């Protein structure tokens, strides 16, 4: 029994999902002729109360296309210093869109409307890059799956409206936030110009992300997706997995959150662990005591068939997902108690 806590991207399709994929009706999506893709796109747009959606091969491409839609070369976007668009997309915002990132020194991947206000550039000053976009990440990945406060997001939206800034949500794990905070998709749909959502994380699909927005934005996104080489053919097989996940894998995210909390508590109780970040969703970030080498710690767990990620400087991460059973969680807790 291998317990893979490296990421929630490691899941394999369930039998039900495979069956849905196998039975999908497909067509050539570049000719807009795949009924299953269209069904998925319409379904998620309806759930969020937004006009349209577009399927993407990855969350990175969905974010990159969103940045492209909202900016012109030379402009600037504002995001938290820990955000995925800045740290983990290969410098794509400058490569694809020619924009720079003005980083906010936030708290656990999140910031306030006030902090945003301080960063917005002065359009009258020709020395400054023009700010045109703000990106938010919910849940905040690098912070350990932290969830934003909806009230603060509303204030941020007001700033964006006053300053004429577009607002994009990197919602790779938005469904984890919705479940943890008991929020509704429409509350986000009304607030953001575009939202990207990963099907391949907690929702358990083998591949796929969606970008949601207005008809006008999604029309542009279709063109940019093609430009980036993301026009695909019989992807109804993948969209069928997405439809299945939205119908079957959303409510169960609470199990992942509970498992993360259980293991988080076991880590708290361990004498070799210095600190555990608050566990809000499916990610647990923690630090070993200074006298313990984190690589040794990772190897020790690996020898018990538990795979976790070392993030450097004593920082370690576990991610809970669909393929982690109660039995596995018990085993992890027992191993931690023995350390
Ligand atoms: C995983 C992730 C993405 C998208 O990553 P892909 O691997 O390209 O699908 C974007 N943002 C965040 C916060 C993520 O965790």
Automatic annotation (TrEMBL):
Residues 4-289 form the Aromatic amino acid beta-eliminating lyase/threonine aldolase domain. Keywords: Aminotransferase, Lyase, Pyridoxal phosphate, Transferase. GO terms for cellular component: cytosol. GO terms for molecular function: L-allo-threonine aldolase activity; transaminase activity. The modification N6-(pyridoxal phosphate)lysine is found at residue 201. Gene3D superfamilies: Aspartate Aminotransferase, domain 1, Type I PLP-dependent aspartate aminotransferase-like (Major domain). GO terms for biological process: glycine biosynthetic process; L-threonine catabolic process. InterPro entries: ArAA_b-elim_lyase/Thr_aldolase, Low_specificity_L-TA-like, PyrdxlP-dep_Trfase, PyrdxlP-dep_Trfase_major, PyrdxlP-dep_Trfase_small. Its cofactor is pyridoxal 5'-phosphate. The keyword Lyase applies. Belongs to the threonine aldolase family. This is Aminotransferase class I/II-fold pyridoxal phosphate-dependent enzyme. It comes from Aureibaculum algae.
């Amino acid at each position: 029994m291998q317990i893979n806590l490296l990421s929630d991207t490691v899941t394999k399709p369930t039998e039900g999902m495979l069956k849905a994929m196998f039975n999908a009706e497909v067509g050539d999506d570049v000719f807009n002729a795949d009924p299953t893709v269209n069904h998925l796109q319409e379904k998620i747009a309806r759930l969020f109360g937004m006009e349209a959606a577009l399927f993407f091969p990855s969350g990175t491409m969905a974010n990159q296309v969103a940045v492209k839609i909202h900016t012109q070369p030379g402009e600037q976007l504002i995001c938290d210093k820990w955000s995925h668009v800045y740290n983990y997309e290969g410098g794509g915002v400058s490569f694809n869109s020619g924009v720079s990132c003005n980083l906010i020194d936030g708290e656990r991947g999140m910031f306030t409307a006030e902090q945003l206000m301080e960063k917005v550039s002065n359009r009258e000053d020709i020395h400054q890059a023009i700010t045109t976009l703000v990106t938010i990440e919910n849940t905040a990945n690098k912070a350990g799956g932290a969830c934003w406060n909806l009230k603060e997001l509303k204030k941020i939206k007001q700033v964006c409206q006053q300053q004429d800034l577009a607002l994009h949500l990197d919602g790779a794990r938005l469904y984890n936030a919705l479940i943890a905070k008991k929020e509704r998709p429409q509350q986000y749909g009304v607030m953001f110009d575009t939202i990207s959502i990963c099907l391949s994380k907690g929702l358990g699909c083998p591949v796929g992300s969606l970008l949601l927005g207005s008809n006008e934005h999604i029309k542009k996104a279709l063109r940019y997706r093609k430009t980036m080489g993301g026009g695909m053919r019989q992807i109804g097989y993948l969209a069928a997995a997405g439809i299945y996940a939205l119908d079957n894998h959303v409510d169960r995210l609470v199990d992942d959150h509970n498992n993360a909390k259980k293991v988080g508590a076991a880590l708290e109780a361990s004498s070799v662990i210095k600190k555990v970040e608050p566990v809000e969703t499916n990610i647990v970030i923690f630090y070993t005591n200074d006298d313990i080498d984190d690589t040794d710690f990772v190897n020790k767990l690996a020898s018990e068939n538990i795979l976790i990620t070392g993030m450097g400087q004593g920082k370690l991460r576990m991610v809970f997902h669909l393929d982690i059973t109660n039995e596995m969680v018990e085993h992890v807790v027992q191993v931690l108690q023995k350390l």
